# Entry
Amino acid sequence: MIHNYKSEDKVLVAVDCIIFGFDDEELKLLLIKRDFEPEKGQWSLMGGFLKKDENLDQAANRILYHLTGINDIYLEQLYNFSKIDRDPVTRTVSVSYFALINISEHDTKLTANYSAKWFSFKDIPPLIFDHDKMVKHASRRLLYRASTGPIGFELLPEKFTMRQLQKLYEAILGEKLDKRNFINKINSFDILIKLEEKDMSSSRKGSFLYKFDQEKYQKKKAEGFSFKF
Amino acid sequence: MIHNYKSEDKVLVAVDCIIFGFDDEELKLLLIKRDFEPEKGQWSLMGGFLKKDENLDQAANRILYHLTGINDIYLEQLYNFSKIDRDPVTRTVSVSYFALINISEHDTKLTANYSAKWFSFKDIPPLIFDHDKMVKHASRRLLYRASTGPIGFELLPEKFTMRQLQKLYEAILGEKLDKRNFINKINSFDILIKLEEKDMSSSRKGSFLYKFDQEKYQKKKAEGFSFKF
DNA sequence: CCAAAAGTGTTTATGATACACCCATGA
DNA sequence: TCATGGGTGTATCATAAACACTTTTGG
# Structure
């Protein structure tokens, strides 16, 4: 006997993207104004539906690109939300994805061509459906990511100062860190390249710029080096 | 304009359950012999399809109960597998769930009434579809769970010896642990109750039995105590 | 010359690891 | 009495945390 797949219920599978950014001061969340019913005009995560001819990762990338123009970033699968009436119109199961991006590289395009906007966590507007739960879940995952490996790669510009990196960690961990201990810790990872160049915008003295050494990082990771923060 | 939900593709959503057990010596995996095509007669995780009137957690519990009689355990959502042709018959997205259970409490029922069987990790048979990937993913999650909180609750009988608990951790972590350091660590958590009673089956001297103190554990957890192993 | 941020090491405390002997009992 | 597993504590090492002053330079 062949199992009768046809007798089984099919459901709509949605994908919702939680995108975190950092602007040198605080963590931000990318939202769009929904342009269709239900909940038209409300703020929402970037969402859409899985199509027959793509897997979930592909759907997440397509949906994010379509709604924000953001492309070629690493989206990580997070969790499913499947409460029966979570979408008032029809039964959907939503798969959440999250990613970290560098605001400065994406901001102009976003505000010019899309209805997407960055929000501080202090003033996130009410979100549709269960999107607030998704954001909470993603925040926990971000915290976990930050404590198990370096995260600056995606969130900071290519060249950055120690101060910027520290502010990023402080924003994610939600606590002030000691400057010297922070630098010692980061240096112990040995995955930064100190440049000759200084950033003169933040002080009279100027502060050295650094770059991530992707190669060294990949090598250390492959060797099982622990980047526990 | 109302978004046309009807134009979107619907897909079958499967749920597959990865169940770990422990038998005082090693970690085991519960599998069933598939009794329908495709892949009839092959070993497989416990799987089924999400129905319209249930959420994913409910589906996982229903499916596991139906196939094994196992009930009232905590199933944790793991990850989605969505490769387009992962199921050769029709497009499905599979949501994996995992759980830990105490073999001795479930074994007789299982072998008597169901075609489910426990396998050592050493000799897991070839599995259908992408179930081997699911198992790998679940093993990583188990390792993570073991390093962030106590795991004996579900995997051991109500009363157990320190030796049993240590063997469990050794099985999960995949390494031998020092007896004294292990006990010191566990005692530092302060969530066990030492009973008067001794287990005489393993040695002439006998070894004291312990119970988990659920109340103390919940209280400590609520206070943010870190059970990092 | 002073305000404002950058840069730099050492001491202390805490937790992790390594390690070896006596105990109780049934056969 | 002896073989078997059970039970116990300390010293050392490594990592984390606390902590304050000097440097640079534009205004």
The CA atoms of residues 4 and 10 of chain A lie 13 Å apart. Chain A touches chain B through 33 residues (CB under 8 Å). Residues 161-163, 179-180, 183-184, 202-208 of chain A lie near DNA strand C (CB under 10 Å from a C1').
